């Protein structure tokens, strides 16, 4: 396993990077604070670049395929102007079992919510406005056409494999099974809908902690690991749900209905009335689906952190793992599940 804090590992990484930047030294590689479970990050001296070193694949892909997928995500999103540019791909080897990417170092801070919700909306709109390529050109990125609801339900079912043995209240299991039944039913309805859900390039993991706001007030999205062709409404939901705004340690906001309306208004203005009219009918059900996706992911994380070496809690910085455990416990608590189900039903 690559350790960004081990001098020998940084020296080995510097050796590989010198094929692209000959003057680079091991001392130029500076480990950055751990932000999540999937990657380590190292800044490259004064080059305004960062190395993303995967620790695992959240989609359980083989190392080479996962790295190629992520690299293509950065390439496809680049025309948006709000994502880091890709500069180099380091293939998997003994030092880097999952390889690494070198991308722009985005200078900024965590978004301040709710005040900067419009900036997040505009960033998402910029990604969603990237021209959608024909189906034959979409691989290796996943393509959720023609029914992104059914594709999302497939992911839910994968996460739900861990529900039966989860250490959550029986009422939570019952509620989530009810939500899964609704999701499957809604996927069948979507299949027969007279107007298909619009398919665009989406970022997927759009919780606010994956944005950085610069001094210019522009929000930039920095995690393209799960880019695919799907439903923009899911990106909007994941940027604003309680289980998203309460995930990152540097955000920790709770939004009101007015906050959500302002967010959607900013997005609608950015994409234009025609695109918004096609998307608006999907906004409410996408929020329910995305909340279910996140809650089931939390249950999956609990299981994998205790059983899968790639997900082991001891691989994560102690204060971060403590925060994740607190968030997962909150998101899967009976009172939280009951409250959020009721709120989503009332929207």
Any overview of this molecule?
The chain is an alpha+beta fold. The protein folds into 2 domains: 7-104, Phosphorylase Kinase, domain 1; 117-346, Alpha-Beta Complex (Aminoglycoside 3'-phosphotransferase, Chain: A, domain 2), CATH 3.90.1200. It is built from 12 helices and 9 strands. It has helices at residues 7-17, 63-77, 117-128, 148-159, 170-191, 232-238, 242-245, 257-271, 273-279, 283-307, 318-331, 334-346, and strands at 29-31, 39-44, 49-54, 86-90, 100-104, 200-202, 211-213, 219-221, 228-230. The chain has a 5-stranded antiparallel β-sheet with strand order 1-2-3-5-4, with helices on both faces. β1 and β2 form a beta hairpin. α5 (170-191) crosses α10, α6 packs across α10 and α10 (283-307) packs across α11. The longest helix has 25 residues, at 283-307. It is globular, with a radius of gyration of 20 Å.
Largest sheet: 5 strands, antiparallel
Query: For the record, what CATH class of the largest domain applies?
Result: Alpha Beta
- The CATH H-level homologous superfamily of the largest domain: Aminoglycoside phosphotransferase (APH), C-terminal lobe
Mean pLDDT: 95
Roughly how much helix do the residues carry, as a percent range?
40-55%
Count of beta strands: 9
Low-confidence stretches: none
Beta-strand content bin = 5-15%
What gyration radius follows from the Cα positions, in whole Å? 20 Å
Tell me the domain tally: 2
Rough outline: globular
Q: What distance separates the N and C termini?
A: 45 Å
Number of helices: 12
CATH topology of the largest domain: Aminoglycoside 3'-phosphotransferase, Chain: A, domain 2
What letter string, H or E per element, gives the SSE order? HEEEHEEHHHEEEEHHHHHHH
Q: What's the architecture of the largest domain, going by CATH?
A: Alpha-Beta Complex
Structural class: alpha+beta
Reading side by side through the largest sheet, how are the strands ordered? 1-2-3-5-4
């Amino acid at each position: 396993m690559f350790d960004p804090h081990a001098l020998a590992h940084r020296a080995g990484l510097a050796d590989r990077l010198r094929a692209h930047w000959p003057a680079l030294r091991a001392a130029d590689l500076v480990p950055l604070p751990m932000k999540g479970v999937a990657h380590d990050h190292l800044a490259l001296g004064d080059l305004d670049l960062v190395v993303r070193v995967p620790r695992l694949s959240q989609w359980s892909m083989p190392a080479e395929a996962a790295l190629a997928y992520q690299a293509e995500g950065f390439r496809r999103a680049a025309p948006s102007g709000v994502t880091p540019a890709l500069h180099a791909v380091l293939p998997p080897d003994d030092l880097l079992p999952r390889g690494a990417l070198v991308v722009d170092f985005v200078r900024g801070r965590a978004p301040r919510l709710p005040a900067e919700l419009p900036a997040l909306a505009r960033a998402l709109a910029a990604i969603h406005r990237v021209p959608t390529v024909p189906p034959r050109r979409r691989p290796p990125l996943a393509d959720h056409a023609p029914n992104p609801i059914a594709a999302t339900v497939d992911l839910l079912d994968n996460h739900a494999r861990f529900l039966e043995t989860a250490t959550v209240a029986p009422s939570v299991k019952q509620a989530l099974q009810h939500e899964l039944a609704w999701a499957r039913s809604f996927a069948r309805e979507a299949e027969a809908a007279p107007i298909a859900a619009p398919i665009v390039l989406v970022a997927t993991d759009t919780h606010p902690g994956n944005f950085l706001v610069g001094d210019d007030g522009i929000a930039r999205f920095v995690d393209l690991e799960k880019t695919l062709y799907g439903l923009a409404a899911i990106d909007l939901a994941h940027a604003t749900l309680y289980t998203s705004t309460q995930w990152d340690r540097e955000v920790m906001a709770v939004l009101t209905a007015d906050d959500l309306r302002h967010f959607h208004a900013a997005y609608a203005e950015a994409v234009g009335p025609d695109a918004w009219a096609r998307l608006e009918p999907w906004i409410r059900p996408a929020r329910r689906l995305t909340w279910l996706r996140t809650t089931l992911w939390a249950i999956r994380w609990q299981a994998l952190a205790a059983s899968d070496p790639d997900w082991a809690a001891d691989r994560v910085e102690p204060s971060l793992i403590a925060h994740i455990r607190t968030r997962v416990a909150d998101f899967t608590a009976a009172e939280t599940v009951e409250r959020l189900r009721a709120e989503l039903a009332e929207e």
